[in-house]
Design brief:
The structure holds 2 protein chains of 2 kinds. Chain A is an all-beta fold. Chain A is about 0% helix and about 60% strand. Chain A has no helices and 11 strands. Chain A starts with a strand and ends with a strand. Chain B has strands at about 5, 10-15, 20, 25, 30-40, 45-50, 55-60, 65-70, 75-80, 85-95, 100-105, 105-110. Classes of the chains: A mainly beta, B mainly beta. Chains A and B meet through strand 4, strand 5, strand 9 and strand 10 of A and strand 5, strand 6, strand 10 and strand 11 of B.
Chain lengths: ~110, ~110
């Protein structure tokens, strides 16, 4: 158990509504990530954070924003959800230092109808 | 930019058969390499990782992988698969600066009892 909690675990929302997913960690790790998983695409990085208020874009960041006001929380926001954002979202954490493994949360299943 | 390619999208084996899943990456620098497994409905779990040293890496559940630098490959192997190995397997790479784990598309393994 890497001490990662994602919420909500399942959500159905309507197109055009805002949605926020929360990732909470208890390990005080520096790096946090949001990935989305879609069939045939593996996991793709949306955004990541390397410290409080320090974030950067991944390969599929359009339509998403993030915030990290505390070390333990990393929020992913869909400002106006679209059907193409129906996916499984995984949060991940990594400690600083060479060779640290990235550990994943249990996932948040989001359906946009 | 880094990329990871997994050549087998779906592999079907009978129990006790040997397994080899291919993984190739493109990156000119020093890399860290990982194999993750995802059982149906679950999150990703680390199978094994390579940072440096012996290119033959042993992981959990009898899996191993060999890093061949000249071929930019990190293939996953298991001498004798079990029904419980049915899952999706992901190869991933990041550079030794940490972070930004890049995934392959995944290989679905189905083991017939």
């Amino acid at each position: 158990d890497a001490g990662i909690t994602q919420s909500p675990r399942h959500k159905v929302t309507e197109t055009g509504t805002p949605v926020t997913l929360r990732c909470h960690q208890t390990e005080n790790h520096r790096y946090m990530y949001w990935y989305r998983q879609d069939p045939g695409h593996g996991l793709r990085l949306i955004h990541y954070s390397y410290g409080v208020k320090d974030t950067d874009k991944g390969e599929v960041s359009d339509g998403y924003s993030v915030s990290r006001s505390k070390t333990e929380d990393f929020l992913l926001t869909l400002e106006s959800a679209t059907s193409s954002q129906t996916s499984v979202y995984f949060c991940a954490i990594q400690g600083s230092g060479y060779g640290n493994t990235i550990y994943f949360g249990e996932g948040s299943w989001l359906t946009v109808v | 930019a880094q990329s990871v390619s997994q050549h087998n999208h779906h592999v079907i084996l009978s129990e006790a058969a040997s397994l080899e899943l291919g993984c190739n990456y493109s990156y000119g620098g020093t890399v860290n390499l990982f194999w993750y497994v995802q059982y149906p409905g679950q999150h990703l779990q680390l199978l094994l990782k390579y940072f440096s040293g012996d290119p033959l890496v042993k992981g959990i559940k009898g899996f191993e992988a060999e890093f061949i630098k000249s071929k930019f490959s990190f293939n996953l192997r298991k001498p004798s698969v079990q029904w419980s190995d049915t899952a999706e397997y992901f190869c991933a790479v990041n550079d030794n600066q940490g972070g930004k784990l890049i995934f392959g598309q995944g290989t679905e393994l189905s083991v017939k009892p």
